[in-house]
Each structure stands twice: as C-alpha cells, then as structure tokens.
Amino acid sequence: MAELKQALQAEAKAVDHMLDLLLEIPDGAEARLVEAMRYSVLGGGKRIRPFLVMMTSRLFGVDDQSALRVAAALEMVHCYSLIHDDLPAMDDDDLRRGRATCHIEYDDATAILAGDALLTCAFEVLADEETHQDPNVRLKLISELAKASGMNGMVGGQMIDLMAETRELDLPEITRLQRLKTGALIVFACKAGAILGKTGELKNHALRNYGHDLGLAFQIADDLLDVEASVEETGKKVGKDAERGKATFVSLLGLERAHEQANMLSEQACKHLDVFDKGTDLLRQMTHYVVNRRS
Amino acid sequence: MAELKQALQAEAKAVDHMLDLLLEIPDGAEARLVEAMRYSVLGGGKRIRPFLVMMTSRLFGVDDQSALRVAAALEMVHCYSLIHDDLPAMDDDDLRRGRATCHIEYDDATAILAGDALLTCAFEVLADEETHQDPNVRLKLISELAKASGMNGMVGGQMIDLMAETRELDLPEITRLQRLKTGALIVFACKAGAILGKTGELKNHALRNYGHDLGLAFQIADDLLDVEASVEETGKKVGKDAERGKATFVSLLGLERAHEQANMLSEQACKHLDVFDKGTDLLRQMTHYVVNRRS
Q1: Which residue does chain B place closest to A90, by CA atoms?
Q2: Greatest Cα-to-Cα distance within chain A, rounded to the nearest angstrom
Q3: Testing the interface with B: which of A27, A80, A145, A152 to mutate, by most B Cβ within 10 A?
Q4: How far does the CA of residue B117 sit from the closest CA of chain A (Å)?
Q5: For domain B2-292, which CATH number applies: 1.10.10.10, 1.10.10.60, 1.10.600.10, 3.40.190.10?
Q6: Given CB atoms, is A180 within the 8 Å cutoff of chain B?
Q7: Contact A124 B150 (CB under 8 A)
Q8: Which of B28, B116, B156 is opposite residue A30, by nearest beta carbon?
Q9: Is B99 helix (H, G, I), strand (E, B) or coil?
Q10: Contacts of A215 by beta carbon, 8 Å cutoff, 6+ apart
C-alpha cells in the first residue's frame, strides 16, 4: 500500500500543477471567481479519479501531457459537483477535505458560479488540440464525459439522491443511484486511458468493468466510513446518512455484509485486469485501497 | 417588423421541436430533473440566440438540422444561466418569461441540478456527429461555446455583476461586464453559422462584429426596458437595477444618450453585414428589433 500512496501523491502533484496552469487568475473583477475555482480544485483530495486516468493511460503508452489534461478536466467536473452538492440548498455541508466548503469560504453565489465555470472549463480543456492530436479522440472524451456527468449520469444520480430524502430506496435503486452519482465518473476515469490510447473493444470493456466494480466498492466503503470513521479521519462531516434517515448500502445490508460486498467487488474489479499482460499493479492495489481507506 | 416576428416564431417552433427531441424524460426518479430542464428551456422566450444561429447558418447554406442542433445547444446554455441567475443566492427572481422561475416551480436544489444538466447536455449535443460530419467543426463549436460561456465569458461577466453590488462601475467597466455576461453568447450565436459553414476570416469577422454591436445594443435596450417597460410587457420584474442601486448604461448615460447609443450600435451592426451580397434582410431587421422591442 505504501507504493500506491506514494504514486497517488506523485500523480496528485502533477495534476495540481496542470490545474494551476489551466486556471490562471485574470486581472478584472472576475478574479474572485477563478480564486474560488482554484480554492476548491486545488484544495487537496485523494485525486483517485485523476490517478485512474493516469494509470489507464500508461497501459497504452499515452503521452503524459495528454493524460494530465484529461485528468485535470475530470477533476474540475468532480470538484464542481462537490461545490454544488455542498450548497445550503443541497447537502448544506460546511466542511470538505478538512477545509471550509466553497460557499462558506466565499459565498453561495460565487460557489454556484465557480461550479458552473469549472464544468465549462473541463470541456474547453478537452476540446483543445493540446489534449490529443486526433480530433475524434477529443470528441469521444467530450461525449463520454458529458454523458457520464449529465442528466443520464452524475447529475441524474444526484436528483435520485434528492428524491431519496422523501422515499426510502431499496437495494436495486440505491445501486442504480450510486452507479449514476459516483460510478459514472469513475468509469469515465478508467476508460479515459483506453480512449486516449485508441485501444480495441476488449481492453476498453475490461477497463469499463473494472471501473464499474471499483466505483461500487468505493461507494459502499464511503457509506461504511460515514458510520465507522471520524471527522478527523475523513475531513468531512460523518453520520450524515443516518441523521437524515437515508437508506445506504450499510442500512440495507448491515455492516458485515456491506464489508463483504465491498471486498467481493474489489476482487472482481481486479479480475477484469487479467486481459492486460503487465502494468496493472497499481490499479490492482487501488481496489484494495478504496475498501480499506480511512478517509 | 411583421416579417421578422413571423420568422422568429417559425424558428422558435423548430428549435422547440429539436429541444423536445433532445430532452427525453427518463423512466427513473430523475424524471423530475428532466421535467425541470424542459420547464425552463421550453418555457417560451424570444429565442433571439437560436434565431441568430439559424440566420447566419443560412448565409452559408448549412443544413437546417445541423443549425437547429447548435441553436438548441446554445439555448440550453442560455437557459441554464437564467435558472442559476434567478436563484435566491443570486438575483432571487420569481418571475421569468411570464412564469414562475425554475426554483419556484420546483425547488432550489432541483433548479441548481437542472442548470448543471442543461449546460452538460449542450456539449453532449455539439459533440455528437449528427451535429456536423466534420469533427473539427464540432470541436470548434465546443471550444467557442465553452470560451463564450465560461470564466472568461458569461460566467466571468456574472461574477463582475455580483461584485458590482458592492462597488459602482464606470462606463468602460459596465461595457466589459456586458460584453462578457450577455455579449459573448450573442457573438457565439452570430459566429455559429460561419463555423458550421467553414467560411473564411472576412465573413467570420463580419459576423463577430455584427454580434458584438448587436449584443451591446441589446443590453442597453434591456437596461432601458428595466426603466421604461412594465412587468406585463417584459414577463419579468422591472426596476430591479435602480432598486439595487446598480450602475447601468441608463444610470451612466441618461435615458436620451442611452437610446442614441443603442440606435448607433444598431446601425453599426448593420454595416458589418455589407460584406454579404444577399440573405441578410432578417439579420438587419433584427438590429432594429432589439432596440425597439417592448419585452
């Protein structure tokens, strides 16, 4: 696990550097907007999604600069969703990654706009020819990221999550919610390397399936952390789900079965990587990391 | 003007039909999200931006289906900005296009997500090969729309507008604010036809300049309407700027000079169209319409 943590840190640093370059603070009064964007997107985090982009890209020998731009764009989308999710009108959270959330540090209006601008910037970055010389690769990235993060992906999942506050969901419904809300972006992260590397169906599907199982394991572990971990460990509020009476994998499966399920999915995710001869060590370690992390 | 109004209505109908096709209501609990998106995007409006896309596309014989998809994507971005702008944390408006705003009809959280999903969907639509067979045209549209609507465009302008509540802006600052906040999307609308038609620099610049002057004239007229028109005419709250003590073209120039300036810009916009031999009648009428409208 030490090797993975070191690699996570190294890639996080490289992605932060790319984000720093992409989000230059302008001269005008709108500087505050870009400061808020930078506050959120450069405010730490495990950077699991960017890491998955980098690792899957290396499987195909993709140029690091290409992969870093895609990783940065994806992190912008992830961070925009956190900013909007934390707003008073949504989850009303004031702590994220151990710091004040964007609307607490700035204000609600700035946070809404910072989220909007991050989402927009992600597509601008992907459309730029510096991301990949092949126009069809850039279009595929844009199309897949839009699908993963829009009404039939992440935002759709967030809507189901909102509806879940008034009606308790069952296991298939929770699974679908999470597949959309957190799974879709994780699957995109895993497929990004395959898209950049223009690989065939077999490896593309293997990475999609890896991402699917990893994403679900990640979410079950997240639900477990909400019950078992402390604010100090996670850097965000815990016990939220129980407080709101919302169904989770833990409330539906119980602690023991939730742990079992997460471990099973973690092993299953690993198996999908068998189609690759080499280069999957860190991706395999990742499957254990997501279920055993304490933050 | 009757000819223009008829043409505006005809194009609005065609764009509405395209938006209806693109925003299919799904089966799951996220149906509410797409209903809110449809409520806002199919809720009337003058459809000036889509109209400009259609008219400039016709100058180059662009296929109507291509133009309609771009027009629909642009209207999604415009409507997302209205939804977020109307939120309690922003302008706190409950009336838009003569109807309850999205967060009043639904709720704040749903409105935030509906805006997010519309923005995302716009890029998904543009990336689709049905929009144009040439990948580089699609990428150019995505790149230009992202720039026009992001931190260096519309959202940047909205941020400056927020800052203007605490510090009174002067004329160059107001002009820059409006160039970003409303001008950038109008310029995009005017350039869309040139991008789709793959025309040269001369005509591209002519349409950009037309859009620039038209956009500024539009905004001055908007400031005048806020002073001179009624709620019944505009379908939205009026007298807002004065109430908030915000500087506008009218407060800085006075009524008479604001009217003069709008008319001057309208004529100037027309002149840019002289590089075209024909097909610009409705675009010329549009320059008069934007300064003489009552809504």
Answers
A1: B109
A2: 55
A3: A152
A4: 5
A5: 1.10.600.10
A6: yes
A7: yes
A8: B156
A9: strand
A10: A178, A179, A182, A183, A184, A186, A187
User: Touching check for A133 and chain B: CB below 8 Å?
Assistant: no
Q: Taking residues B106-132, what's their average pLDDT?
A: 98
Strand partners, A99: A96
What whole-number distance in Å separates Cα of residue B146 and Cα of residue B149? 5
Percent of chain A clearing pLDDT 70 (strictly above): 100
Query: Model confidence over A280-292: pLDDT tens digits?
Result: 999 999 999 999 8
Please name the residues in contact with B244: beta carbons below 8 A apart, sequence gap of 6 or more.
B165
Q: pTM here?
A: 0.96
* Distance between CA atoms of residues B194 and B192, nearest Å: 5
Contact B28 A135 (CB under 8 A): no
Residue from A155, A169, A195 to probe the interface with B (highest B Cβ count within 10 Å): A155
Residue boundaries of the structural domains of chain B: 2-292
What angle do the packed helices B2-22 and B31-41 form, to 10 degrees?
Answer: 170
3-state secondary structure of A190: helix
CA atoms within 13 A on the CB side of B36: 31
| C-alpha to C-alpha distance for A276 and A211, rounded to whole angstroms | 15
Q: In B, which residues are within 8 Å of A130 by CB distance?
A: none
pLDDT in tens, A9-30: 999 999 999 999 999 999 888 9
Contact B163 A32 (CB under 8 A): yes
| DSSP secondary structure letters along A197-265 | TT--HHHHHHHHHHHHHHHHHHHHHHHHHHHH--HHHHSS--SHHHHHT---HHHHH-HHHHHHHHHHH
**CB–CB of B120 and A152 under 8 A?**
no
A100 phi/psi in degrees, rounded to 5: -60, 140
Residue B226 tokens, joined: 């806020």
